[in-house]
Known about the structure:
By secondary structure, the chain is α+β, with helices and mostly antiparallel strands.
Amino acid sequence: MLKLKGEKINMENLGNEVMAMENTGLVVTEDMTHEQRVNLFNAVNNAEGLSDQVGKDLWLTGYIVQDVEKENEKTGEIICSKLITVIDKEGKAYATNSKPFLQSLKQLKQVFNYDWTKEPVCVTIIQKKSNSSTNKYLSMAVK
């Protein structure tokens, strides 16, 4: 359940596939119910930072990948990236734009290719240091 201002919202109706996203917004299919649309919007719009979950276990029931554009404040250049939102069995949503985390998530879905809403996958969020720089990035390990 996703908790928003005292409410609990059921995320099971969303499923757990990577949702197709466009720069113009979320792709919504005609067969989605109002409740599914509300849950999708709230998951994407109210996510907490995934980096705050380093070292913690999350039981994943789903995820959403979204194309986002951000303007570089110094150059004005538009930078495109992916925003990854994972949803845990409590319905809490956590977001990151970590490219390595997205790769790990894709691999996780290939290995655990069943409905996570019925059997969540337990992962530990980890932070690693890049070999080529001092940058850190997010990844995960299956429990």
